[in-house]
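Appendix B. One record, verbatim.
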Amino acid sequence: MSIWWSLHLRREAASVPLARRLLLGTMETAGVDPDVSYDLSVALSEACANAVEYGGDTAHGGCSEAYRVTAYLDGEKCRIEVADSGPGFTGERTSRPAPVHTDAEAGRGLFLIQELADHVHIGNKPGRTGAVVSFDKILKWRKDAPLMAV
């Protein structure tokens, strides 16, 4: 069975826990292992926090007060994409992020996503302004999972 959902969220701090809770609830209902769910929820929170902080282009007269989160649970994999309408990434930011000190307040989001997910793509929207962070992880299922991949 496949499950997917997409949210169009305001670039406000309150949207981050909303997206995280929706992902955790979906994964719990489907029967995904709690450790995998936790890893993906932390990665999603970091991607959403980046979209909230950096995802606007109001300096150029644009009105980008929203960002989009899409999640797919399909078979043995979960794929998450967070897209915004900000200025996007520069060349050096799309390569593997450098490790940061564990006490750092900024700069750890992309690094954490890389560490928590199996595959990560960090880039810009083709032909438009905005950044896209997508990542996926192989799912593990609880023994009593109602929607386990067959």
